[in-house]
Structures are given as C-alpha cells and as structure tokens.
Amino acid sequence: MQKAGFVPLSNPPQPPPTITVAAGQSLDNVDFRLQRGGAITGRVLDANGEPMPDARIVAMRRAQSSAPGRRFGPAPMQSGQQTNDLGEFRVSGLAPGEYVIAAMPGVSPFGGPAVAPTAAGTARTTTATTFYPGTTDEAAAQPIVIVSGAEVGNIVFTMQTAPVFSVSGIVVDESGSPIARAMVTLRGDPRSGIGMFIGFAGSAQSLDDGRFVIGEVPAGSYRVTASIMMIVGGRGPSSIGSGSSGVAWSSGMSGGVSGGLVNARSFGPGGSIDHPTEVVVADADVENVRVVTRRPNPQ
Q1: Terminal CA-CA length for the chain
Q2: What CATH number is given to the structural domain containing 105?
C-alpha cells in the first residue's frame, strides 16, 4: 500500500505479508499502517551564486552493501527531483533516518553530430555532481537527519567544478570493420558509488572511419555501448533483429517508413560480448577504446 507523503513503518521496508483467502471466506481486521514521511527542502546555486535550474536532486542513504566503492544507496520510494527556475527543490516522502543530498547538472540525452577528435590533454572543467554542503567528495557529504513527519529546510549549497576529460576510440563490427554513424553512449557504472545515479553521462556519433570522441567527462567509472539506427522503407513497421547480442524493437514513422534502434552489447580487449565496455576516467583523457557491436540484419 502506498500514499503520497507516507512511508512504511518498517525501515528498511519489509516485503508485504502474504494473505490467503479460501473460497467463501471473509477476512476482517487486515490493517495497513503507514507513517508520515519527512522532507528536505533547499536551493542549489551555480558558481556565480545564481539559482541553478534543472539540476537533478537525489536523496541517498548510506549503503548497506559491502561492494567496493559503494558508499551510498538510493533512498526507498524515491525518484529524482529537479530544481525549479529559482534553484529550489523539495524531496518528500522520506523515511526516518540519515540522508545525503546530491545535485547533478542536467545532461541532454541526445548526442551531437560527428566531429573530429580534439587535441588530447586539453585542460577543461565543468559543473560536477555536488554533495551538500558543497563538495564533490562523497566522503565529505554532510548527513541530514529526518524524523517522521518533519521537514528540514534551508539546505543551500553551491555547485562545484571539476576537471573533465575525453573518451575516444572506435566502433567496429565483429570482423573489425569500422561502423559509421553509430551512436556511442557513456553511462555511469551502476556498481560503483555515485555512478549508479548518474545514468546518461554523454554520447557522440562515430565518424565515417568509426572513430568517436565523447568530451566533458568527469573522473569516474563508466560503461560504453554502441547503437545502430536502421531505416527500412516501403513496408510499414518492421522488426530489426540484433542476434543474441542485443535487444531490438521497431517503431512506425511517417510516410510508411519504419525505424528500429538496436542496442547491441559491446566488449573491449579481453572482454566478452556479454559485457559492455568498461572505462575508468582518472586524471587524463582515455583513448583507444574499442567498442565492438554486431550489425543488425533486417528480417
């Protein structure tokens, strides 16, 4: 049972009990109990002290997992929030406990056109994921204590900047031939720290020789995948197969043309086609990333 602004009495939430009803039987006194959740409100500012709109806000709790690098876990019953035009946010429906608040700059889910690689090693900075009270270091995040039904306000902090680097390489098929105009996507590694909350981190389209460059990438652990768009005309919606390496679907388009986006799994040197390419960005540009994907075949 769920209700906006309320949370389960147990923390962490326990699986609901199983109720067995026999034919003709009537059960009474089946009670469901919830408690009023807490809330955290505040504002996010940019480096100039101005309100920062459209920043993604995530409430996290100390992770119970012992996995290496896993410091935080998602707050139960929570989804990401965004700051409004005044930089304000409100995260509600929080169970009692300690939380940390992180703000992440918005990232467009659409990659840019194919571009030539930029000079390696160029020093650049960007707005980085920032933890309250204003730090990029997860370990320095200040916990916020929530009690049932209470609201903690005036959580104001400024987004910080961090060095960014590029991830470049080539997209090829299983025979080693370059794949042009493939969409290469970089996502946070869900197994490590804040990476599980980053989601989409950047994308780029491969050139005619299969090479790609994704810029403005902060330090962290990521996964790289490649997708191929195929247009099949004249027959209406069509399935596009991707073999055992990926998942395919089709969608109708105007003029009797159908398109399908095939997400093929990829692998790097020494890897397997069953695992995506893994990239760790530390303090320098990452080059020579090889993303292998299977070419889809129209059915």
Answers
A1: 45
A2: 2.60.40.10
